[in-house]
Amino acid sequence: MSDSHPISDELRTILRGFPEETVRDCAEFKGTGDRAAFDRALLGLLHHHLSPKPPRPLSTYPGTTPLVAELGLDSITMVELVFIFEDLFQVKLPQEELVKVVTIDDLRALLQRALPGTPA
Predict the structure, then answer these.
(1) Is residue 87 part of a domain?
(2) What ranges in 1-120 are assigned the alpha helix state H?
(3) What is the distance between the alpha carbons of residues 22 and 41, in angstroms, rounded to a whole number?
(4) CATH code of the domain covering residue 58
(5) What letter would DSSP give residue 58?
């Protein structure tokens, strides 16, 4: 992880209230397109919205972990995340694809498909 990527005012506004590490990961991904930074950013954004917080870091969970059954993600939180993802990455996430998201990997794949120039 690098701290050398500038964090724009727009990014700070979108991610107001998020941990600084997540903001830096988002800035790094936006600046480099690095897949590891994307994954850290995604998991940071997701972790921030979970309540209660999982007992261990999301990076230790397999991609097959169900968002609802295992992590307690509810529909309102998913809508909030969708708005953040769309604002942050300037993408539109298709409703018909969102309803198919069940696991961390499903969410990861949906975002990767939506991001221009990012291989799935």
Answers:
(1) yes
(2) 9-14, 20-32, 35-49, 75-89, 95-98, 104-114
(3) 6
(4) 1.10.1200.10
(5) G
Cα distance between residue 72 and residue 2, in whole Å: 31
pTM: 0.88
Q: In total, how many domains does the chain have? A: 1
d(C-alpha 92, C-alpha 100), whole Å: 16
Closest C-alpha among 13, 9, 5 to residue 31? 5
For the segment 63-101, what is each residue's pLDDT rounded down to a tens digit? 999 999 999 999 899 889 999 999 998 889 998 999 999
The two three-digit tokens of residue 62, written as one number: 């397999």
d(CA 25, CA 7): 10
Answer yes or no: is 44 within a domain. yes
CA 114, CA 94: separation in Å to the nearest integer? Answer: 9
